[in-house]
Amino acid sequence: MFYEPSKGHGLPHDPSKAIVAPRPIGWISTLNRAGEINLAPYSFFNAFSTRPFIVWFSSEGAKDSATFAEETGEFVANLVSRDLAEKMNRTA
What we know:
This protein is an alpha+beta fold and 92 residues long.
């Protein structure tokens, strides 16, 4: 199958989210300037560079995670270990 995003795909789910695999899952934790904490499940984050080490995440829309990270310039990517998998499933 040749997939050109601008022309659609006709599939029941967007294949662009499955093209890069395996994709890590985890929680993105952020803190805004007022000290409010946000913890949200994400599956669209990864390492971008090793020197310097850069981790990114992608947020669809202006959600708290992205807003808080932009405010402070910081976020933490918390990876999910096997013992936390069920808790991740409940929050996703």
